[in-house]
């Protein structure tokens, strides 16, 4: 992609944990924009399995090979974060029709709050269409195998969390 200005996209989420579906979208978005900021939400509205520092470390680990991805924590309004990092695009993932309704409403609200920023929706590859952090956490909590849904580093951290459970 060639342009006169650097376009920064922001891919926000809780990433608890970051899955291969997230990685798929991150890799594709990194190929579309000169700079991608993976915005790891503090997640005050959710009870997370991993601490913010753990989620940041996992995300940074999988982002390293891409080169143009920065992993940064955020708290508060997405609008404020996007503006503070000169974002022009918000990247959101869609897996199912249910995701679409929620994300469509959020995109509309974000357009009201930051009309200068576009939201784009990406769908994960077929292999990852039903992968969600919620499912991964639940399967891991119950002792199931999640290696096909997460990177080896994330798998090791999940195994450490549930060692002796």
TrEMBL record:
Key words of the record: Nucleotidyltransferase, Transferase
Enzyme class at the top of the EC tree: transferase
Protein EC: 2.7.7.3
Superkingdom field: Bacteria
Protein name per its UniProtKB record: Pantetheine-phosphate adenylyltransferase
Organism whose genome encodes this protein: Roseateles hydrophilus
